[in-house]
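A protein record in our archive is deliberately plain, so that people and models can read it alike. The record that follows is passed on verbatim for readers who wish to inspect the format.
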Amino acid sequence: MSVGRILRIAAAIAILIGGLVHLDLYFDGYRAIPDIGRSFMLNAIASGIIAAAVAARSEWFVRAAGIGLAVGTIIGFVLSRQGDGLFDFREQGLNPSPQAGLSLFVEIAAIILLALTFVPALANKDASFKLPILGATAAIAAIVMIAFGASAASDDGSSSSSSDTAPPTTPASDETATTVPEQTTVPGETTTTVAGGEAPAAGAQAVEIKDFAFAPPTLEVAKGTTVTWTNGDGVDHSVNASDGTFDSEKLDQGATFDHTFDADGEFAYVCDIHPYMAGTITVSG
């Protein structure tokens, strides 16, 4: 097998991995962001098609298409971390981790590998596979993408179903209240819990972070109430008060953050990683 063909196959694998990363992120919550979600799905589809073509064919325009896709993906990566971001969506650094870093690595690798195939000494000795092989590589790419997408969608559906069926927590009224254990949380205290931590205490209020949004986005609670945020997305989020009253660390999937509100007022907060995600807690005596 020629060196040029080996380089093309390696580049095709890198391109396919990049597409799978975007497909994984799509089902991990990015599909809830209209323009970004569509672009991630389109990237995944284009990656599967171009990966199959690059692995089977040696024509210059096929290799150029592979480079173009990788360069375009990197440009999108950079734009999404500058100014107002991409489609008014902004990420920070190598978030989400590790997907962002992996995507950046394989796209750069694909560019380097395909650029080497344009070296005359390598290009002249490279030859395309016959058309049946192109069909086979396309079928393999399609099977991998569909199987991976189905698995990612199933995992997301399982977590969504679990959260949807969990009984809501509401403060007990004076007439219907059952005995509620005395709260042991120190007023004003905040706590971050890793995935698998204990459920919110009876009488607490819960906010779910899902599909890049706080649910519910606004919440009215009595003074002394503990609010628990739980990250249901497959990417990191945070909970940060606009006035600095409370700030969480980065919350990975399943992690929780608690804060007890011991003063009246309206407390606006955002996700510092994705600032367009906003919510408000209104506290009254």
